[in-house]
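Good morning,

Attaching, inline, the C-alpha cells for the sequence recovery test we're adding to the shared suite. The designed sequence is right after.
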C-alpha cells in the first residue's frame, strides 16, 4: 500500500481500486457540510452575559437616583438552557442605609420579545418585564412596590 498524503492523489496498490482525490475537493466538501450545519446552531437572543448600563430607581414622590453612579450593579448571565446566574447590589445610600444584595440564580422565560426572570431570591427584578431590543433587555418606567425602575441590560 502506498499513500502520498502531500501529493494530489493517493494510490492503493494490490487493488483494482485507484482513486485521485485532491486536497481542494476535500476542503470544498468539508466547507459545504459545515456551511449546511451552521444555520441551526444560532443561540437564542437572550443567551449571553448582560450588565446594567442604565439603572435608575425613584421611590414614590422622590426624584430618580442613578444606582450605578452610587455604586450599585446588576449583571446576569443566561445559559443556553435559560438558567441564569448573576448578582444585584443596591448600595446602602440608595436603600435606606442597608446594602441589598440578591442572587439572580434562576431561569429566564422568553415570550416573543419579552423576558421575565423566575428567581427564588426576593427582589424587584423578578417583578419586572424586560423587552428584548437588539442586544439589550429593557425594563422602562415599571413600578414595583411603589418604586419606579428604569433598567437597561446590555449584552457584553
Amino acid at each position: 500500500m502506498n499513500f502520498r498524503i502531500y501529493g494530489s492523489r493517493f494510490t492503493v496498490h494490490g487493488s483494482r481500486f485507484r482513486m485521485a482525490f485532491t486536497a481542494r475537493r476535500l476542503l470544498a466538501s468539508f466547507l459545504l457540510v459545515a456551511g449546511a450545519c451552521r444555520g441551526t446552531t444560532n443561540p437564542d437572543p437572550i443567551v449571553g452575559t448582560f450588565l446594567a448600563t442604565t439603572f435608575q430607581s425613584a421611590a414614590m414622590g422622590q426624584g430618580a437616583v442613578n444606582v450605578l453612579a452610587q455604586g450599585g450593579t446588576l449583571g446576569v448571565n443566561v445559559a443556553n438552557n435559560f438558567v441564569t446566574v448573576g448578582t444585584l447590589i443596591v448600595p446602602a445610600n440608595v436603600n435606606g442605609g442597608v446594602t441589598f444584595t440578591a442572587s439572580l440564580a434562576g431561569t429566564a422565560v422568553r415570550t416573543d420579545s419579552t423576558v421575565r426572570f423566575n428567581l427564588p431570591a426576593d427582589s424587584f427584578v423578578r417583578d419586572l418585564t424586560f423587552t428584548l431590543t437588539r442586544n439589550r433587555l429593557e425594563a422602562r418606567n415599571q413600578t414595583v412596590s411603589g418604586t419606579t425602575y428604569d433598567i437597561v441590560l446590555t449584552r457584553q
